[in-house]
Design goal:
Blueprint: H1 2-10, H2 12-26, E1 34-35, H3 40-55, H4 75-78, H5 85-92, H6 97-123, H7 128-139, H8 142-150, H9 154-175, H10 181-192, H11 196-212, H12 214-217, H13 221-237, H14 239-251, H15 270-273, H16 287-292, H17 306-325, H18 332-339, H19 349-368, H20 373-394, E2 399-400, E3 453-455, E4 460-461, E5 464-466, E6 470-475, E7 482-487, E8 492-497, E9 503-509, E10 516-520, E11 528-534, H21 538-572
Antiparallel strand pairs: 1-2, 3-4, 3-7, 5-6, 6-11, 7-10, 8-9, 8-11, 9-10
Length: 573
């Protein structure tokens, strides 16, 4: 503790400038209202769904119990949600929807700043000014603000925390001795559990860099073995997400397989990327970052700073190359069959901001040396505040009040954005309650979707929900099939319990009306209580076990290593 206090005293200005930068990005959170965001409603529903799933006895939550008015949705199986357990647990503890989300958003913003500070600190050779400048630029970049307040993209907001670790990990792999493989490992581990598309973007960058530096990476036996080992450990430590996800993709035809947009249609024109007119947040980058890159034109040239200039040049080239990837000059139509699920090339703005932020931090120190450190940080902060203010002025943030019982109303549980994890045969409108053209002018005909169990001979049976994602109902008489009001995903099971308590398994599949569960009871089975419940699959259980054991082994290994290092230091003294 004494060391922490001493460090804080020696770095008062760094702490102050960091607090100001993080505080500025958090300003729109400082209200009792919820800010708007294109996808924010879906992410709030995900948080609420995890909370209700945990209270309902699921752990980990697999099928959302409140999505689609109780029909369920596999958001938790197909979308990484590990870190959303933080706001979900806050909800269970009685914290409101709005403050729970805002606490998590603050953690993401502060996390982005700290990981960028660490990455730039290492890249710059422990230069604090360069690190703080890079962290300010990266955290306050317009695309970060767009993810937070315009797009409401909580997945990409989380990815901002881990991108710096990936880029420094790759730098350590290529230009250093790869003595910190854990940095790259944690970076990709975090992306895997944050946002799949951001993970794909980072993998593309890593793949290209490994090709460019083939001799340094692949042909260097020691590095390549460590890299492969890192990849295997990351896959094992994230198996609880990607293995069940792949199982669902292979077992069910989802909308995910039918792209709703083409990535080549969303590439930007170069004038749009460099525009200051804010034509569309999907096209503009950040004029403040681009203008600060002009520092490269006035850098001093001498033998002493040759290595520094080479590093700056590399980060500038990588930054502008990544910007090129977002444009229509990049051959998106050629790579579209492989990368169409990226959807929008401007998602690479996050990585471009990172590369250029590091370059700006290094250039500021090289240009002004050890002088004016406080002035440099203050000036960069002022530039980014101006850039952010222009952004806020153009994209007016709307606010609304969200009650804690908002999602107890079924009509508020249908925000799925594109509904990519629904079965291909399902349509949201058939999950909604009765709608009549007399009361709802948007409806052309009466649509009835009461949540009832329906048999092939026209009977309608009422049911009761049970703990976990499932339901029960009394069943008597033979029928060929029954449709149950639960969206089918692999992992559902059904059984009939007779008066003696004997259980008889019941076959089921996903051929029910609108992609729901369909049961096939035996004609000879007597009546009893039919139970339908999501019990999971063997792959899910084994993946969770593998994931847990891997993390436990890593934790034990880390503790032993720390203890060994401490004992070595003591004996060395």
């Amino acid at each position: 503790m004494k060391r922490v206090i001493a460090w804080a005293k020696d770095n008062k200005f760094l702490l102050l400038i960091s607090a100001l930068a993080i505080g500025y990005v958090c300003l729109p959170l400082a209200t009792h209202m919820m800010h708007s965001g294109e996808d924010l409603g879906y992410h709030l529903l995900r948080i609420e769904n995890i909370s209700e799933g945990l209270k309902d006895g699921q752990f980990p939550v697999k099928i959302g119990p409140i999505f689609l008015n109780g029909y369920g949705y596999a958001s938790s199986l197909c979308y990484p949600e590990l870190f959303l357990y933080i706001p979900a647990v806050l909800r269970i503890l009685g914290v409101g929807i709005e403050p729970s989300y805002k606490v998590f958003a603050f953690l993401c913003i502060a996390g982005s700043y700290l990981t960028m500070l660490y990455a730039a600190y290492r890249i710059s050779g422990k230069e604090k000014t360069a690190a703080s400048v890079a962290a300010i630029v990266y955290t306050m970049s317009q695309y970060h603000l767009a993810n937070l307040y315009t797009r409401g993209s909580l997945g990409e907001t989380q990815a901002f925390v881990f991108f710096p670790l990936v880029i420094y990990g790759l730098y350590n792999l290529i230009f250093e001795e790869y003595e910190r493989p854990w940095v790259l490992g944690i970076g990709f581990w975090g992306l895997m559990y944050s946002h799949t598309i951001s993970l794909v973007s980072a993998l593309c960058v890593a793949f290209v860099l490994c090709l460019i530096y083939f001799k340094r990476v692949v042909l260097n036996g020691r590095k390549f073995v460590k890299l492969c080992l890192t990849a295997v450990i990351v896959l094992m430590a994230t198996a609880a997400y990607w293995l069940p996800f792949l199982e669902q993709l292979l077992s069910l035809e989802m909308r995910f397989g039918q792209p709703w947009t083409l990535v080549s249609d969303n590439a930007a024109l170069l004038p749009q990327i460099f525009s200051i007119n804010f034509l569309d947040y999907t096209y503009n980058f950040d004029i403040a970052i681009l203008l600060m890159c002009l520092l490269a034109l006035v850098l001093p040239k001498c033998e002493e700073n040759k290595r520094q200039r080479r590093t700056i040049r590399w980060f500038l080239i990588m930054g502008f190359a990544t910007l090129w990837v977002t444009s229509d000059y990049f051959p998106w139509k050629l790579v579209q069959p492989l990368l169409n699920n990226i959807q929008f090339p401007w998602r690479f703005y996050a990585i471009a901001s990172l590369f250029l932020a590091v370059a700006i931090g290094l250039m500021a120190v090289l240009k002004f040396g050890g002088r004016y450190r406080r002035e440099i940080m203050t000036g960069v902060l002022a530039c980014m505040v101006l850039s952010g203010t222009l952004y806020y002025e153009h994209y007016k943030i709307d606010y609304y009040d969200i009650k804690n019982d908002f999602y107890t109303y079924g009509e508020n549980t249908f925000n799925l954005v594109q509904g990519e994890w629904l079965p291909k045969s399902a349509e949201e409108k058939y999950f909604q309650p009765i709608r009549d053209p007399k009361t709802d002018p948007e409806v052309k005909e009466i649509v009835i979707q009461d949540r009832l169990v329906r048999t092939d001979d026209g009977r309608e049976l009422e049911f009761s929900d049970i703990r976990g994602q499932g339901l029960q109902f009394d069943f008597e008489g033979a029928c060929r099939w029954l449709d149950v009001p639960l969206v089918w995903y692999k992992g559902y099971a059904a059984w009939l319990t007779d008066e003696s308590g004997k259980r008889t398994p019941c076959a089921l599949d996903g051929n029910g009306f609108n992609g729901t569960v369909r049961l096939y009871p035996e004609s000879t089975v007597n009546g009893g209580t039919m139970t339908v419940k999501y019990t999971g699959t063997a792959v899910q259980h084994l993946a969770l076990l593998l994931n847990t054991v891997t993390l436990a082994v890593l934790a034990v290994w880390w503790m032993f290593r720390r203890r060994k290092e401490k004992s070595s230091n003591v004996s060395g003294q």
